[in-house]
Structures are given as structure tokens and as C-alpha cells.
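Let us work through a complete example step by step.
Step 1: write down the sequence.
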Amino acid sequence: MRPFYLKLDELYPHRKYGCLGSKPLHQVKIDWQKDFLDVYRNRKKFTFVFHSELSHEDNYYLSPMDADLLAYLRYLKESKHLDDSILILMSDHGHRYAKTRSTLQGKYEERLPFLGIALPKRLKDAHPIETKQLIKNQNRLITPLDLHATMRHAAEFFTPQPPPQHQENTKTTSKREAGVSLFTPISEKRNCAQIGIEAHWCACLAWQSLSPLGTNVKTIGYYVVAQFNAQTEKHRDQCAELTFSKLLAVDGYAPSTKILSFKASADADGRNPDFSDTMSAGYRLYRLTIETLPNHGHYEVTVQEDIASHRLSMDINSVSRVNAYRQQAACLGDKLPHLRALCYCLHQKSEEQKAVKSGSGASIK
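Step 2: predict the structure and record it as C-alpha cells.
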């Protein structure tokens, strides 16, 4: 429905938020999907529907959709569409805006989106081992790549498979690229580093709060702002140079001392660990929330410090802007979308400046 929504914004630029005439826009999408399922009831099909207008700026507006979503789920069950279909209900992230995003809960919600999977009874009866494994994996660390592998695996349940033929596999595919189906075992010891989740997005690390008054962490704050300005340097005729204002929060992380000192098992049964290894951590991670001026921007960023050389590094693409920038980057137009969170146009409207100072608005990454 992408062409439909693009044309909708073009034809009705001043329509009421969340509506198309007198009808909620999410209901338009639900009705479209119901028609699709009814028309192709006896055909194999795959449908993906994504709605964000009500919740993208503020979760407050999402509750009016609850009753309609419940009615749709009941329709799927009562019309027996779920008798031979797998239903996946998911989000791409949780609440990540304004004051909520500034809390510990907000940090976790941004990184831990909801994922729910409903299987038809006949599939559960035909594949009890896979069903049991899916339930077991609900408390495992997974990525969208695993969900993709799961959907490919699920397709095999509904499609007769030809007899296996011996064929040399000349294609090299890493486990990270392929993902792991949730219908198969996933280790409870799986960690972010093993599956390519950067530290900034990892919810499994044991972060410890540090004092924002420390000289070292302030130095890191200045380093971060310097990286921001390097991104907008070529557009200084439009974007103001940002300055470091203050540290709002800072956490530190280093590899566990027990992991570093573990050498081997001291007994044959592996029950008594030998912690005599003298390995030292080669790096330290800092997760900072800083404020910059003149845009009063709040940013969350993870910085890695090489302990031996004290050299700092960061991934500019993993920076989170946790308060709204609204029209601050309006001078860029539709160009350079990756700079909008960092660019504060030299010419700002007075209304926008007042809104920024009051802290109003939603966060945009």
C-alpha cells in the first residue's frame, strides 16, 4: 500500500491526523488486509502490513487502535484464517521518545521490540518438537535475521519438500548472514558480539553508572561533539557548529573480570573454575547522554576507549537523538536525511527556538 499512502499525503496534505475523512487510517489498512485474505482464502499467500502513524511520534495516540486491533484478531480467529496460517505481531522498537526515552525503561524499550507468534493447531500437532523449541526460544537473544530464517523454515511446513539430492555447496554463507530459525535450538549463552549486535544496541551488557563530573568522561563528551561537527563540516553554510553543553548521564562497561581471569576448569567434571588467567581488558565502553547547543539536542552514543593508547572511537551511524529536532534541519529539505538529527540550521524561526527551549516534542533517531 506504499503508493496509496504516498498519494494520500499528496492529495490530502492537511487531513486530520490518523484519519482519512471520517475513517481511522489504520482501519483502512485493516480492511484492505481483510479483503486480501478473503479474496485469496484458498491460495498460498504472504502479507506484511506495517502501521506507524499513530505511534511514531508519541505512544499516547496508540490506544485508540486497541479495540480495532482486537476486533481484527477476533475476525482472523472466527473466520478460521488462523486455522492454516502463522500470525506474527511485532514492532520495530518500543517507546523511544522525550521523557520516557530518558529513563532506563525507555532505553530498554527502544532496544527490545515486541514479537509475538501464533501457530495454527494443526501445525503444532504435526510438529511438536519445533513448537516446543519455539516456546523455549522466547527467552533467547535473537535478531531480525533469525526471524527471516524462521519464516523460511515455516514455509517448509506448508510446502511438500522434494527428496534431498546430493549437491556440492559452493556458496559460503556465514551464520550471521543466514540467521537461526526459532524452530531450532538457540543457545542461552548467545551474546551480542556473536551475532553482530553493536554494544550501543545491546541490552545484555552490565552497564555501571559513572559520575558525569569526571574529567575523563567530559573529555569523551567533547570528542563526541567533534565527531558530530565533522559530519556537518561540508555544510557549514547551512548547519551551525554544535558545542558541548553538559553530560546528562554516563554509564561504563568493561568485560567481566571473571571472564577475563577464567583459564580453564580445574577438575575433570568442569565444576571448579580456574581463575588464574592474567588477561586484561583491551577496551572500555562508555554510553553517554549529552546535550549540545545551540540546538538543545539530547544524544545517546556509545564510545569505545582503547585502554592502552586511550584512543577513542565511535560509530556515527549508531547515534540516537532522544529529543525532537522537528524543523531544526528544515534548510536541508529532503536532502541529506542522515544529517537531520545533527544539523541546526543557521536561520531558525523564533517559534521553533521557543519549542526547543521548552523541551517539547518527540525524539527522532
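Step 3: interpret the result. The longest strand covers residues 243-253.
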